[in-house]
Amino acid sequence: MSVTPATAAPGLRRGEPGFRRVSVGLFFAGFTTFALLYATQPLLPRLVDVFGVSPGTASLSVSVTTGGLALAVIPASALSERWGRRPVMLWSLLGAVGFGLAAAVAPSFGLLLVLRALEGVALAGLPAVGMAYLADEIDAGHLDGAMGLYIAGNSVGGFGGRIVVSAINDLAGSWRAALGGIAVVSGVCLLLFWLVLPHSRRFAPSPVAARELAGEAAAHLRDPVLRRLFAVGLLLMGTFVCAYNYVAFRLLGPPFTLPDLVVGFVFVLYAVGTVTSTAAGRLSARWGTRRTVLVAVGVAAVGALAMLAPVLALVIGGLALLTVGFFAGHAVASAAVGRRATHGRAVASGMYLFSYYVGSSVGGTLGGVVFGVAGWSATVGFLVALLGATAVVVAGLRRAGSGSGSGSGFERRCPSVE
Q: Which of 113, 161, 331, 394 is surrounded by the most beta carbons within 10 Å?
């Protein structure tokens, strides 16, 4: 599965024309994925008011979408092995835009959740397949930079989508108009993705039996390094989504009581992820995966603690540091998965993304419980606990990489673990 034939064209390197087309195409894909996936996040306070639900219940409009994606991401990866990377990504985006438009006219909160879950299932064909596509087409020595740009697209979609949603919601006074507007913007990005992204040069689709898929997944799970990288994705994403889900409630309430539109612009902090993702990829080539991710976790923890202060500048600055740490850690860990998996890359990427989006669903929901029961200070404590667990997992990468069995030889295949 997804093994590059010896006769295939060489991997693309930075500076070559094809490298730019691949990077730009996946940038648009990353933008669309995050813009649609978290479209209701800035609307949570409005959903609480309109439907009369708790903050934790409102957050289900985010959690069911990421949960649907998590459940479907590995099957979608398998489909890409059979039908090809590019077709699966295109159909996934088309379906997600359609469900996004439908969610904007949902007559009840229950139906909104159903449509948001289906939107997540449709989006599943994008994240893991996009990572596998990059690992297939890009030279291994240039993969970090390309993966960083793809994840930068995630960050731009994250803050751009939320700003669009927040602005429409505030100006039109309608969460329906806000969801419909971001779906239309995503449709434009889908068109650009279709026009720019080239067909695969180094991958030939082939049928995948269920037994073969299960065997690939089992092989990846036996690898102690991949297990730790999957856990890193889960814990980092749980931290990140929890922070952004409930910081809006913090800023809308006392002592800040900011207007909705101003709170919406807090999501522009995602922009730092655009720079951070690409820079982290280059830093990991010098520092190694383990050291880079540990530094990223430390930066995020400092940011989380700063958000305890009753000072607006410190809350915003802390959220910025947490964002920097998240995008740096995620960019480096996801690239390491692509290098580690010398076979079944789509499955390995799917397993990483499964963990990543399970973390989003669980972290966002549990964070809502903590916030509802004990308030903001306890929520920050929850964030720090997740980051502490991440540091423990990352610290063991060296031992796992030098062990016997499926973990042996990691330094040879992925030397940046140190």
A: 331
* pTM given for the model: 0.76
> Is 311:190 a contact under the CB 8 Å cutoff?
no
Neighbours of 199 (CB within 10 A): 10
Q: What is the dihedral of CA 192, 164, 367, 257, to 10 degrees?
A: 160
Work out whether the CA dihedral 388, 393, 397, 399 comes out positive or negative: positive
Among residues 395, 401, 383, which one has the least CA distance to residue 240? 383
Question: For residue 200, which of 126, 142, 136, 123 has the smallest C-alpha distance?
Answer: 136
Amino acid letter for position 184? V
Cα 75 to Cα 230: distance, rounded to the nearest angstrom: 17
**For residues 57 and 44, what is the distance between their CA atoms, to the nearest angstrom?**
9
Q: In this structure, which amino acid lies at residue 153?
A: G
Rounded to whole angstroms, the Cα distance separating 186 from 308 reads: 35
pLDDT of residue 287: 84
What 3-state class would DSSP assign to 157? helix
Segments in 104-223 forming alpha helices (H): 109-123, 127-137, 143-172, 175-196, 210-222
Give the pLDDT of residue 404. 38
| pLDDT, tens only, 360-407 | 889 988 998 899 889 999 999 999 999 999 999 999 887 665 543 333
Q: pLDDT tens digit string along 230-273?
A: 999 999 999 999 999 899 889 988 899 888 778 878 878 877 77
Q: How far is CA 399 from CA 188, 225, 339, 409, in A?
A: 46, 9, 18, 12
| Distance of alpha carbon 36 from alpha carbon 62, whole angstroms | 10
| Closest alpha carbon to 383 in 266, 286, 243 | 243
Per-residue b or e along 375-405, where b marks 16 or more CB atoms closer than 10 Å to that residue's CB: ebeebbebbbebbebbbebbeebbebbeeee
